[in-house]
Amino acid sequence: MRAPHFWSAGLDPQSREAAPLTRLLLTPFSMLYLWGLRRKLARAVPDSAPVPVVCIGNLTTGGAGKTPVTEAIRNRITARGLRAASLSRGHGGKERGPLKVDAGAHTYRDVGDEPLLLAATGEAWIGRDRPEAARAIAAAGADVIVMDDGHQNPSLKKDLTFIVIDAGAPFGNGQVLPQGPLREKVPEGLARADAVVLMGEGPVPREVTASGLPVLRARLAPAEAPPLGPLVAFAGIGRPQKFFDSLAEAGGHLSDAVPFGDHHPYAKGDIQFLRSLARDHGARLVTTTKDHVRLPPEVRQEIHAWPVTAVFEDTAALDAVLAPLFKS
């Protein structure tokens, strides 16, 4: 699904682009959604896991960079001597879990695309029931669970919570679903957090400053140079333009760029269209690693997966937030 254009920031609220009538009609649904979330959070009695749980959440739908941050924090904890495993819901996969993801045996149709990426660089699990999955992960020997998403899910007690915010597009039009991209009101979401990870270039949002939370700056950095020659890029992630911009900034020669909806399942027709576009430009196809695992296996070799990783500007500041995990 692609985000509606009227969710974008900076639009004149009364302009046609901002769809004022549509937003007005959606007001009752946003109010109902917010009421339901507040009620769920207020009434919940979270289960405690046998080991510490670090939640990597956000306040908007998709595109902030949670999964790369989850990977970076999990790997940072592991590098400091604790066994850390990631936990994802497994969005888009048929398996309910608890299940340890095997990147060589499972497909995105089994476990979802993001857990597959996390399994490529470390220990990754999925589980629709977060408390049940946490118990299974602890029983398997993990010292720390790093949960990809789940800030609005109160079923499992979190020991530390990082909120990931895209500095270039923090909160869209500032409205709650379905009027806008927010999963909850910003001050309410920040009040349950321990730190903010601000991804990319941009000022610290005033709501974050007002919260008094530590702000960690991070960015998505290429793990390798872009392929040489003309490129046709495509992506089905929260904000495809971020991928296209990163590719160009790293020196990639983009002849064309094709956005798809987040978690888009690539069908035969999509591949035929992309191949035709590449032929027209005399170019090579390139996509994200997240998209690459959703491609039909028989076409993956002809399409380049360009990897990026989350890099923290100040690892000492990150370690300071993670310090409670290492107290004996």
From TrEMBL:
Known role: Transfers the gamma-phosphate of ATP to the 4'-position of a tetraacyldisaccharide 1-phosphate intermediate (termed DS-1-P) to form tetraacyldisaccharide 1,4'-bis-phosphate (lipid IVA).
Record family assignment: Belongs to the LpxK family.
Catalytic activity: a lipid A disaccharide + ATP = a lipid IVA + ADP + H(+)
Annotated GO MF terms: ATP binding; lipid-A 4'-kinase activity
Entry keyword set: ATP-binding, Kinase, Lipid A biosynthesis, Lipid biosynthesis, Lipid metabolism, Nucleotide-binding, Transferase
InterPro entries xref list: LpxK (IPR003758), P-loop_NTPase (IPR027417)
Gene: lpxK
GO BP, one annotated term: lipid A biosynthetic process
EC numbers: 2.7.1.130
Family matches, as Pfam families: LpxK
Uppermost EC category: transferase
Pathway involvement of the protein, from the record: Glycolipid biosynthesis; lipid IV(A) biosynthesis; lipid IV(A) from (3R)-3-hydroxytetradecanoyl-[acyl-carrier-protein] and UDP-N-acetyl-alpha-D-glucosamine: step 6/6
Cellular component GO terms, alphabetical: plasma membrane
Full protein name: Tetraacyldisaccharide 4'-kinase
Binding site residues for ATP: 60-67
